[in-house]
């Protein structure tokens, strides 16, 4: 871990991964563990996290409209939702000293819209820096698993498939390769966890990692009131 000069600012942890990797389940478990350790915790997701950003999420993922969303519009909508999310939720929580657990963030944009859709990744990185107001995660946990397994899990979740779930297998393979390439480029920040295992085994690997980061950077003490 890279040493920091502060211990009172919050900690920003993101969970990333392809479809069906189990991020939402693991965030729920991790939030419980961190609260038991005395941390103030805020859980959120992208796209989403605020009323405006959730409305954008509906357009992106759940809309029944026949009008196709262009690749550029998709990226810009995601970035607009992120700007609202960072400004209204994430940065204020970090300023209060909370641990923020976010289901997807900028790495998903690079993996899906950069590697998956083929948008220029340099432009995407610059646009994301503006949307995120320079904010980067302190720790990113990448839940990795084969595409076929992840999509099978999504198909088994009846009524929960979204527009991205219905993309081609080839698209999802590009996304997975993108996530792994990003992990290789940012080894100090991104930890890859193999998600083709039972939930409890994954949980047992994630929780000690996150608690070590919380202990070092947030300086939590037992008895601190959780939120």
Automatic annotation (TrEMBL):
<keyword id="KW-0808">Transferase</keyword>
<comment type="function">
    <text>Phosphorylation of dTMP to form dTDP in both de novo and salvage pathways of dTTP synthesis.</text>
</comment>
<keyword id="KW-0545">Nucleotide biosynthesis</keyword>
<dbReference type="GO" id="GO:0005829">
    <property type="term" value="C:cytosol"/>
</dbReference>
<dbReference type="GO" id="GO:0006235">
    <property type="term" value="P:dTTP biosynthetic process"/>
</dbReference>
<comment type="similarity">
    <text>Belongs to the thymidylate kinase family.</text>
</comment>
<dbReference type="GO" id="GO:0006227">
    <property type="term" value="P:dUDP biosynthetic process"/>
</dbReference>
<dbReference type="GO" id="GO:0006233">
    <property type="term" value="P:dTDP biosynthetic process"/>
</dbReference>
<dbReference type="InterPro" id="IPR039430">
    <property type="entry name" value="Thymidylate_kin-like_dom"/>
</dbReference>
<keyword id="KW-0547">Nucleotide-binding</keyword>
<keyword id="KW-0067">ATP-binding</keyword>
<dbReference type="InterPro" id="IPR018094">
    <property type="entry name" value="Thymidylate_kinase"/>
</dbReference>
<protein>
    <recommendedName>
        <fullName>Thymidylate kinase</fullName>
        <ecNumber>2.7.4.9</ecNumber>
    </recommendedName>
</protein>
<dbReference type="GO" id="GO:0005524">
    <property type="term" value="F:ATP binding"/>
</dbReference>
<feature type="domain" description="Thymidylate kinase-like">
    <location>
        <begin position="15"/>
        <end position="206"/>
    </location>
</feature>
<keyword id="KW-0418">Kinase</keyword>
<feature type="binding site">
    <location>
        <begin position="17"/>
        <end position="24"/>
    </location>
    <ligand>
        <name>ATP</name>
    </ligand>
</feature>
<dbReference type="Pfam" id="PF02223">
    <property type="entry name" value="Thymidylate_kin"/>
</dbReference>
<dbReference type="InterPro" id="IPR018095">
    <property type="entry name" value="Thymidylate_kin_CS"/>
</dbReference>
<dbReference type="GO" id="GO:0004798">
    <property type="term" value="F:dTMP kinase activity"/>
</dbReference>
<dbReference type="InterPro" id="IPR027417">
    <property type="entry name" value="P-loop_NTPase"/>
</dbReference>
